[in-house]
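**Discrete fold encoding**
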Amino acid sequence: MNESLVLRRDDGSVRVLVLNDPERRNPLSDPMAAALAEALDAAERDESVRAVVITGAGPAFSAGADLDFLRRVRSETAEANLAHSRRLRDLFLRVYTFPKPTLAAVNGPAVAGGAGLATACDLVVMDEEARIGYTEVKIGFVAALVGVLLVRAVGEKHARELLLTGDLVDAQTAYRMGLASRVVAAGTSVDEAVAWAERIAANAPSSLALTKELLASFYGMGLEDALRYAAAAGAWIRQSEDLEEGLSAFFEKRRPRF
């Protein structure tokens, strides 16, 4: 595993993961995807890490597919191409269902698979000069995997606009569509994302993880099934140590120590 492809640093309770292939604009190559998945595994195991921020080294967040892959894709076997798609599927699913809060700090262009990686995160903080887009149709690809996430993030009509045009949109447009959670001054997305992550990480870990699980599950459920699932989750959390500490802190008028 090439750990240099994803740099790691801790800022308080926040683990910052930096895609580190700036000369190639941080493409989601198989080695990069594997390194990011390993870094997420390490962040999940580390109890001192309460939230994760993902960003890119250099002027780009991630340009999606790497040029080497694009050059050889037509000559690959169907099995090899399916294996590649499944590796990206596993990475996006890992980010989307990660039990700790995830924030993308989009410091520059986030394109195709790179846009999908940002979309898989819980929240997206964009530099005001950054751009994001799902450009696959412009070269004959289809934004299949990222499209699943995009529809959940922005709804069908905005997803149709982004996927059918393949246009890159600016940060303010992404914000209006609901794709970006916040737009910040140029060069500040990482600092702003870390500060936001620290505030989120102060909440109860079990509550954050269960909230993420519920949000991921509700989407495909009918009303009654969703309410039944929510009732079971509400009953479970009432027995948690985090709730016991949270209630004690509330009545004792102090900060909880989760």
Residues 78-96 form the longest helix (19 residues). The longest strand covers residues 6-11. The chain has eleven helices and nine strands.
